[in-house]
Amino acid sequence: MTEHPEVTPTPRPGSRLAEQTHAAADDQVDVMAISPVREEGMLEESTADSPFGPDIVAKAKDLIGRYPQSRSALLPMLHLVQSVQGFVSQEGITFCAEQLDLSEAEVSAVVTFYTMYKRKPCGEHLVSVCTNTLCAALGGDAIYRRLAEHLGEDGRPLGHEEVAGTPGERGSVMLEHAECLAACDLAPVLQVNYEYFDKQTEESAVELVDALRRGEKPQPSRGAPLADFKSVELQLAGFFPEEEDAYRADVDGPSRAVETVRGAQLAADRGWTAPSMPDDAPLPEVEAK
Ligand code: FES
């Protein structure tokens, strides 16, 4: 297990955004006056050292162009940031705030709300073990405990969102416990970079993470082939290969399990259908804004 590198907050330019932060916090407290972002030298250094080069800025502009209001691009843009750094750093928050004309406080509020945005560098792979009720009862808790012990070092189990190996390097694995992954019929499940591995046991889960640690990419139970965390983040941001074959190879795969469609199959076999919606069903009033 490797210590996570210290994340050094970087200053952010933009007096207008500074004013927004100030106003949002409290007119009595000059937030920016007590912030190191006023140091001009630091601002120049931040720009020069930014990990978000022209290609990423172009992608950010592309995302913004997809929405009527720029702030609506925040969620995909945070995935874009993760595709570059493997997590949302303070620099990433600053980048999003600047691109979207938001305050850093607004961006931070979103980042810290959603568990898919990581504040610490992720491994090449993110292993999410469902420990919600059904999976837990069927072995999910035991799987998580076993993986934590297996991936830990010196008798200390790996903690939630800690990484075995060096974050970002080949074979590194971040472990997390997850809430219901919407595959209860295939419990206990885990995901690697959001691809499903169904009906796991402690042994199959250990075999899986061992393969990941060796740099292999086992085939998920269904869905797309396994990719690394950063590549998946780029897809989640909404960027795919332009060429059709390459696109299909990235995203296609068997997407349904027999268990999931069992009810629909039984209904079809027995000729059961749901009553159709009447054409004249009244629709609820829509309030004019
Ligand atoms: S409880 Fe694990 S997928 Fe629903």
Overview of this protein structure:
By secondary structure, this protein is an alpha+beta fold. It folds into two domains: 15-113, no CATH class; 125-228, 3-Layer(aba) Sandwich (Glutaredoxin). 42% of the residues lie in helices and 7% in strands. It is built from eleven helices and five strands. A five-stranded mixed beta sheet has the order 2-3-1-4-5, with helices on one face. A hairpin with a 2-residue loop joins strand 4 and strand 5 (195-197). The radius of gyration is 23 Å and the shape is globular. The model is unreliable at 1-46 (pLDDT under 50). The structure holds FE2/S2 (inorganic) cluster. FE2/S2 (inorganic) cluster is lined by residues 130, 132-135, 180-184, 187, 189. FE2/S2 (inorganic) cluster (FES) is lined by residues 130, 132-135, 180-184, 187, 189.
Brief descriptors of the model:
single chain; 289 residues; alpha+beta; Glutaredoxin; 2 domains; 5-stranded mixed β-sheet; 11 helices; 42% helix; disordered N terminus; binds FE2/S2 (inorganic) cluster
CATH class value of the largest domain:
Alpha Beta
| Low-confidence segments | 1-46
Strand order of the largest sheet: 2-3-1-4-5
Q: Report how far apart the termini are.
A: 54 Å
User: Looking at CATH, which topology of the largest domain would you report?
Assistant: Glutaredoxin
Overall shape? globular
Q: What is the count of distinct domains?
A: 2
Helix content: 40-55%
**Main beta sheet:** 5 strands, mixed
Structural class: alpha+beta
Under the CATH scheme, which architecture of the largest domain would be assigned? 3-Layer(aba) Sandwich
Mean pLDDT: 85
- Percent of residues in beta strands: 5-15%
Compute the CA-based radius of gyration: 23 Å
Please identify which CATH superfamily of the largest domain we are dealing with.
Glutaredoxin
The counted number of beta strands is 5
The number of helices is 11
Give a list of the ligands.
FE2/S2 (inorganic) cluster
Protein name: NADH dehydrogenase subunit E
GO molecular function, one term: metal ion binding
Family: Belongs to the complex I 24 kDa subunit family.
Cofactor: [2Fe-2S] cluster
